[in-house]
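Kindly inspect this today.
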Amino acid sequence: MSTDVDPRVRVDPAPAGTDLRGSAPPRRAGAAAALLGTTALLVVVAAWHLTQGTSGVGALDLLRFDEAAVDLLLGSRVPRTLAGLAIGLALGVSGALFQSLSRNALASPDTLAVNAGAYLAVVLAAVTGFTLPVLGSSAVAFGGGMLAAGLVLAMSGAGGSSTTRLVLAGSAVSLALFALTSTLLILFEEETTGLFAWGSGTLSQRGLGAVVAVTPLLVAAVAVALLLSRRLDLLAAGDDAARSLGVPVGATRVLGVVLAVLLASVAVTLAGPVGFVGLCAPALVRLVARRVPSVARHLVQLPLAGLVGALIVLGADAVVRAAIGAEAALSIPTGVATTLLGAVVLVLLARRAPDAGPTRTPPGAGGRVASGRRTTVALVVVWGLAAGAVLAGVLSGYTMLLTGDVANYLAGHAVPSVAFALDERLPRVAAAVLAGGALALAGTVVQAVCRNPLAEPGIIGITGGAGVGAVVVVTTVATASTALLAGGALVGAMLAFAVVYAASWRGGLDSDRLVLVGVGVSAGAVAVTTFLLVRSNPFDTPRIFTWLAGSTYDRSWEQVLPALVALAVGLPLVWAAHRRLDLLALDEDTPRLVGVPLERLRLGLLTLAAVLTAVAVSAAGVVAFVGLVAPHAARALVGARHARVVPLATGLGVVLLSVADTIGRTAIAPAQVPAGLVVAVIGAPYFVWLLARSRA
């Protein structure tokens, strides 16, 4: 693993000058006070949590030890409270281990895709019909989480060299894994009943059996982690220094990662993927360590992170129940509240720890410039493929058509069955074409402005905001019009963009900070969307869920018109600004030297990208990776000059989403897979290859 450390994101277990062999009594007293104080607060919150429930039994009934109250406690409330304690402890210790091993303050089971991998493994087991005991489910989740974490750590250089690379790698792998999981949930609805809400993290338990079964595993894993605390303290000084003191660095890292994944898998088995507890708990412990330095020692840091994690989980659940009532809170996964909290923490950490890792390389910088002939050939081939993809989309589907059928339809002589098929199919094809082009164009702008070939509208929060806006309209207006849906998506995208831009601004706009803040806002948008989804009419849930996965199902011409207008206006505007985009992609100083109003130009271009993304979401749902893959592939074909990249990337976006839509409609007809899921499955391997290539 990489030994390079970014000093701005390094997680120091002990401040400079601390004697790792021992601590003075006042420091020991400070650590003990932190542990005892957190434990006392946790006891208070747990007691409050026990008094909450859907029945009329209150705190006084519990104190009188009424028989009915005792039965209620043991049957419902105690299992839920103990599950919260176990999950928080597991995730808190897991996050602390990940951050220490990678020396990265943003490492956690979420940003390393451990939760996503464990979730996919459990859903796969359900789909294949395996009925496993609790420990068997933990083993399955452990396998999926281990594979996901290994992939992310390998692609990001163990996270130590670049915070941005780690978060981007984890976000991309999580997107791909959640896409596969969503596909299984859609295709195997009966086998996976209840797993959607569980996939957002819920404390609901059926008795004490599951908690009792995983407790020995949890205790053993935490105990082994504490035995590693001395090694972890020494690793903070650097790999070479640790080796000189006799620490087996490689073995320690492998064992630490295995323990961290195992703990996260235990949490997933009990409650599903509870978001961002593993990020928040260690972050809060580091704040305490600033005032109480002895807390930074891993013998204190690990259990304290676990206690804080349990406090976050139980506190979030208790606050939600107190705010909206226990009855209503049954439908709100606890992971929604913790993810919202984690999104805020991620944004704050991103503001405090800007990154200057290798992902800051300008898109296409240093690449050769393609000849005019090569560019012409590439444009002809790509737009020819786009035309072919459109034709294939029109002809393919549950009912296969011929070109003659289309000709007769256009002439007004089609038979009823053909007319019915094309009336339904043509708007869908148009939605895929226009949304693909708009997302690719927006991605080209975002990558140039961020000078980051790994950025895209989805990763910087715009897509998630548009999704929230559209879902708000769908869930609050019974018969939402097309214009209202597009307007909701536009408002959501612009609000998300405004939050990301404002939070990223600190005496100027730092590109890496923009990406990291965007990831945090995206996570918050997912939590809000999940909240709205589980609170909506159950009959609307499958339709909304399918739309959120990026589907063109049941589209009309009115729904694709805004995307047509935005693309028709945006494409000439972006192409006209190609010289300024070239300057933006170079560095901070060159545009200013030639008189370009840098911040105003950035704001205008990113606003245009947000509008393009919003109309694409209103036309085709939430689609990821198109804005990442198309611009990068275009630069690989014709070089970095945006006069060539802009039209080629737009054409590639049309090809990618059109082909994905056609595959989704025809591969397992009459069943359908949303185009966004197909794109994610295609785009994730390309992203992994891109990370490996940029690392090299």
Remarks:
- The radius of gyration is 26 Å.
- Residues 464 and 519 are 10 Å apart (CA to CA).
- The longest helix spans residues 67-102.
- The domain at 372-695 is CATH 1.10.3470.10 (ABC transporter involved in vitamin B12 uptake, BtuC).
